[in-house]
Design goal:
The strands form 2 sheets. A 6-stranded antiparallel beta sheet has the order 3-2-1-4-8-5. The protein has a two-stranded antiparallel ribbon with strand order 6-7. The two termini are about 30 Å apart. Strand 2 and strand 3 form a beta hairpin. The relative contact order is 0.18. It has one domain: NADH Oxidase (3-Layer(aba) Sandwich). It is globular, with a radius of gyration of 18 Å. By secondary structure, the chain is an alpha+beta fold. The chain has 8 helices and 8 strands; from the N terminus they run H-H-H-E-E-E-H-E-H-H-E-H-H-E-E-E. Helix 1 packs across helix 6, helix 2 crosses helix 6 and helix 3 crosses helix 6.
């Protein structure tokens, strides 16, 4: 799906950047805030966002999630993932990246200005989050247009909770991430370009309110996946 860089810029939550930089609920001084806006503009100008996804039929036991595709069956062992997808008959397997431009800009600032390098890291995290949020909404609208209204569960990535990081290889092989969107996996299972995401996203007929908004906006204070 094509998503413009400016669309991503408009969706970036500036307060998330503050939080990534360690300000919590506070705001930085005017000088730092100006630098954040400058770096964010530079970053948005160089990113080349790309994505790949497939939709599977899903079944889940207490500890195992099985995805049935047209040509292949995938199995993931994780109690947390199974709980997240318990109400989902279909699951989206997705990978997304901002491209090499973000890493090159970071490398530039690591030589010239470490403060800007730190800010670039925070802005990159906010941009990939915004990109994935837009992408999820578009996929959900597309799926819902062909039948019953669907809602999304939160993204669930390898390495989160008890979902082992080694499942990155399964996702990369299945989606052909390197061939399709230029996203590679290191021997230590880290993604390159670094501002990238791989995840499973459940599709459910039950209304959900937690797929885009952060936990602080959610009324379900008993959710086991709640972040503080």
């Amino acid at each position: 799906m094509e998503i413009r860089n400016e669309d991503i810029r408009q969706r970036v939550n500036i307060r998330e950047i503050y939080r990534y930089l360690g300000y919590g609920t506070n705001s930085p001084d005017t000088g730092v805030d100006t630098m954040i806006k400058e770096v964010l503009t530079s970053l948005v100008n160089v990113i080349q966002p790309r994505n790949i996804y497939k939709i599977y039929t899903c079944s889940a036991s207490d500890t195992v999630v099985v995805l049935e595709g047209d040509k292949r069956t995938l199995a993931f062992e994780s109690r947390n993932l199974a709980a997240n997808l318990a109400q989902c008959r279909h699951v989206i397997l997705i990978a997304a990246t901002l491209g090499l431009g973000a890493d090159k800009l970071l490398q530039k600032y690591e030589i010239l200005n470490m403060t800007k390098a730190t800010i670039t890291q925070a802005c990159g995290a906010a941009c990939i989050e915004a990109y994935c949020n837009i992408l999820q909404e578009q996929i959900c609208e597309e799926v819902s247009a062909h039948g019953q209204k669907r809602y999304l569960r939160p993204r669930f990535s390898p390495g989160y909770g008890d979902f082992p990081l080694h499942y990155q290889r399964v996702i990369f092989d299945e989606l052909e991430c390197t061939k399709r969107i230029g996203l590679t996996l290191t021997d230590s299972l880290l993604m390159y370009p670094t501002k990238s995401v791989s995840a499973l996203i459940g599709l459910t007929a039950n209304p959900q309110s937690c797929h885009i908004g952060k936990c602080k906006n959610c009324d379900n204070t008993e959710c086991e996946f709640r972040e503080t």
